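Long-time lurker, first post. I've been practising inverse folding by hand and with some scripts of my own, and I keep getting stuck on stretches where the structure tokens seem ambiguous. Below is the full token string for one chain I'm working on. Before anyone asks, I'm not after the true native sequence, just a reasonable design that respects the backbone. If someone could post their per-position residues I'd love to compare against what I wrote down in my notebook.
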């Protein structure tokens, strides 16, 4: 059952540093138009801005055409119910609201920023938002306590002409309704016949029962319970207008009574609210959604101890069938914004739930299943809700919401070609954001890999190993003195005995003589005496760690934290051989684009043959990372103009590839603007690249290293690597003084290289990945 994927994989200090370094916060603004010249500024501001101002003054809806309104959502809170932590004030909610904005961008390419309102008075809150609400295309209300949230959302929806959506209510409602639709089907029942009991009459609970009624559950078949018992018609104590709307004529007065013979129970209350005895009293094939967080009303283990026929969902990621709001709100707003909807109505929410239910019934791609340790996900009791990182969500769900908005008359514009709309949505997926998720999922989905962290005594390495282990990416092996490692772990706040991490060093390994003999045989004709090799094994962590990998006692290694790259690489190469071509491949993640750059570490001034070999190795690696390589050989010249020695070597590399007959697109020599911008392609009709290049082969190591680091220094991209590609065994070398995150990333690639869930797709192997993994 549990796979512990929700365990905290970071310390409090790391969480604070994440939000503070290098720039405080998680969001920033970037202009979408050039601002380089006086003319640009004149168009952006005065006098050019007067033209759209007058157009919008004549027709307010033109704001969708001339401003960012149409792709902008505000996340608004007063901090009265923060993440289950309670009323901590409006400013304490800001990190959460920024996080919600990040999720909008990450999952649905919706721009968003946060607004924290300093009031707990609902009327004052409504007044503030009413007067600024037209700024955005939609408003996501968040972390506002019940029952005020009902009043705030309802009134703002009436006062504003844009969607106003309280995610704490409706997000849970949509996902749980999707799960219910599928669970009822699997249980062989009907929505209009099932008896549903709700435990917890708060915002999420009441919204869930309301949406389930809209989806087909009959009102007379529902019973709602709060802390005072059943909400029945005529009850006076602890009632309000929202509970009264769902009161039923029922003889039941307690949750235990209501659950006798019930088909479904929805838990949105607190830990322990549902007992084994209650579950045992339910109808055959019961459906139990225990969604309280962090602890459900009853654990799946307790349910299964009394009912083997139950279908179970929770709000947690360490159980199957997680009710996760991120499955709904990004895509709901994506669809609503794309038709410029005036509101989010019941029909749109039902459409979202039905779409999610339908997606769960589709065949699941391999890369999605990999996140579940390689288990083949298939529609059934353990898979009734899609997973949050399913790449199909962005193009599958929004069209249903958009269609419902159009059908119910709340859309300002119509989408005439839904197929074209789906294609446009596919292009909004950020490949850079998805890359590491795909790699992580593949590693989690494969066999557990043992990764050696060579500098195991370093505090940053200890923290990285702990994070690597907690994220279930593999088993870390720390090389170093056990007493010092334990001391440093304790100072970092870790109980080492609970970490499940191995410690080793040559002197206590039991393989000292064997390892020394093996390495001496390898190096004896390269000028090394046996005592030299003995010293290398005993005293140098890189030699010992590489020997562990070479001898099969570990699957991969990470080094470089305390030693520069070249020195670490030389030490590793004395132990491990190069397969064919050794290169450094850097990954640049920038503005929704993923670029692979080679060679960034090994070949200083490659000749033509070396450039061809670098291209082949880079393309092979890019394909194994899930992308179709399109290789551009970069140069200062464009197809011979101006001529030069380095560009001639590039042209010769092209001729070599032409003779070999490789199976990937390539072209050159060309500057970056021709390689990356399709607008430049018509000037060169002979250009063989069908799309912008994603793999860049640099003419020399200095150009490769300088260009990637320059872009990173200007905060124009995230840089991963360089990855070391081409050794006989998986080794990654990080930069001197690497951060915890960089070490974890390197270890993850080493584990992926050692054999991910997709057999034969490691960086050192030759077969291609299955079609499901490769980006088309």
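-- Answer (accepted) --
I ran through it position by position. Result:
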């Amino acid at each position: 059952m549990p796979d512990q994927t929700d365990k905290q994989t970071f310390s409090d200090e790391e969480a604070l540093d994440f939000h503070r370094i290098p720039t405080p916060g998680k969001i920033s603004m970037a202009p979408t138009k050039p601002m380089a010249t006086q003319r640009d500024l004149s168009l952006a501001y005065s006098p050019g801005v007067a033209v759209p101002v007058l157009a919008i003054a004549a027709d307010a809806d033109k704001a969708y055409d001339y401003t960012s309104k149409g792709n902008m959502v505000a996340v608004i809170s007063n901090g009265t119910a923060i993440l289950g932590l309670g009323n901590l004030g409006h400013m304490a909610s800001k990190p959460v609201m920024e996080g919600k904005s990040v999720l909008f961008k990450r999952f649905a390419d919706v721009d968003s920023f946060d607004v924290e309102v300093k009031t707990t008075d609902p009327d004052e809150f409504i007044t503030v938002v009413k007067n600024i609400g037209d700024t955005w295309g939609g408003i996501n209300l968040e972390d506002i306590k019940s029952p005020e949230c009902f009043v705030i959302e309802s009134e703002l929806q009436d006062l504003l002409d844009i969607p106003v959506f309280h995610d704490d209510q409706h997000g849970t409602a949509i996902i749980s309704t999707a799960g219910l639709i599928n669970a009822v089907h699997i249980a062989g029942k009907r929505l209009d016949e099932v008896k549903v009991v709700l435990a917890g009459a708060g915002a999420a609970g009441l919204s869930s029962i309301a949406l389930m009624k809209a989806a087909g559950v009959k009102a007379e078949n529902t019973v709602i319970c709060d802390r005072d018992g059943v909400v029945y018609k005529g009850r006076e104590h602890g009632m309000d207008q929202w509970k009264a709307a769902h009161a039923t004529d029922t003889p039941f007065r307690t949750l235990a009574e209501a659950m006798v013979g019930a088909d479904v129970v929805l838990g949105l209350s607190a830990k322990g609210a549902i007992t084994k005895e209650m579950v045992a009293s339910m109808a055959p094939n019961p459906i139990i959604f225990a969604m309280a967080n962090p602890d459900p009303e009853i654990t799946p283990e307790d349910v299964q101890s009394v009912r083997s026929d139950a279908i179970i969902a929770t709000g947690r990621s360490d159980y199957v069938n997680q009710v996760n709001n991120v499955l709904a709100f990004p895509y709901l707003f994506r669809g609503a914004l794309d038709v410029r909807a005036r509101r989010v109505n019941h029909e749109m929410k039902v459409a979202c739930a039905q779409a999610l239910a339908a997606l769960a019934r589709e065949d699941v791609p391999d890369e999605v299943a990999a996140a579940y340790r390689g288990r083949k996900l298939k529609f059934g009791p353990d898979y009734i809700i899609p997973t949050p990182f399913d790449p199909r969500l962005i193009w599958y769900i929004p069209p249903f919401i958009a269609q419902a908005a159009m059908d119910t008359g709340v859309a300002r514009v119509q989408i005439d070609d839904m197929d074209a709309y789906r294609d446009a949505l596919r292009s909004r997926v950020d490949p850079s954001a998805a890359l590491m998720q795909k790699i992580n999922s593949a590693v989690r989905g494969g066999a557990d890999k043992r990764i050696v962290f060579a500098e195991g005594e370093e505090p940053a390495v200890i923290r990285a190993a702990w994070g690597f282990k907690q994220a279930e990416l593999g088993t870390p092996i720390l090389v170093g003195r056990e007493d010092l490692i334990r001391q440093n772990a304790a100072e970092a706040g870790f109980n080492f005995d609970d970490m499940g991490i191995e410690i080793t060093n040559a002197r206590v390994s039991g393989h000292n003589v064997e390892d020394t003999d093996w390495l001496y045989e390898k190096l004896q004709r390269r000028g090394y005496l046996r005592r030299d090799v003995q010293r290398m094994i005993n005293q140098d962590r890189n030699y010992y760690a590489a020997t562990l990998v070479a001898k099969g006692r570990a699957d991969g290694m990470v080094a470089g934290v305390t030693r520069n790259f070249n020195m670490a690489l030389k030490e590793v190469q004395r132990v491990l051989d190069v397969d064919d071509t050794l290169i450094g491949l850097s990954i640049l993640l920038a503005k929704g684009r993923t670029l692979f750059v080679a060679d960034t570490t090994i070949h200083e001034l490659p000749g033509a043959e070396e450039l061809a070999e670098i291209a082949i190795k880079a393309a092979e690696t890019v394909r194994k990372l899930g992308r179709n390589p399109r290789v551009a050989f970069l140069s200062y010249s464009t197809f011979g103009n101006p001529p030069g020695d380095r560009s001639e070597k590039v042209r010769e590399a092209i001729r070599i590839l032409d003779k070999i007959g490789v199976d990937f697109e390539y072209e050159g020599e060309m500057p970056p603007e021709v390689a990356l911008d399709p607008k430049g392609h018509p000037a060169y009709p002979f250009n063989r690249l069908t799309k912008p290049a994603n793999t860049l082969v640099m003419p020399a190591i200095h150009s490769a290293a300088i260009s990637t680091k320059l872009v990173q220094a200007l905060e124009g991209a995230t840089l991963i690597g360089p990855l070391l590609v081409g050794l006989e065994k998986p080794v990654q070398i990080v930069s001197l003084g690497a951060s915890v995150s960089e070490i974890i990333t390197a270890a993850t690639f080493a584990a992926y290289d050692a054999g991910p869930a997709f057999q034969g797709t490691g960086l050192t192997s030759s077969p291609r990945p299955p079609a499901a993994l490769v980006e088309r």
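A couple of notes from the structure itself: Confidence is low (pLDDT under 50) at residues 1-6, 756-762, 765-776. The chain is about 40% helix and 15% strand. Happy to go over any region you disagree with.
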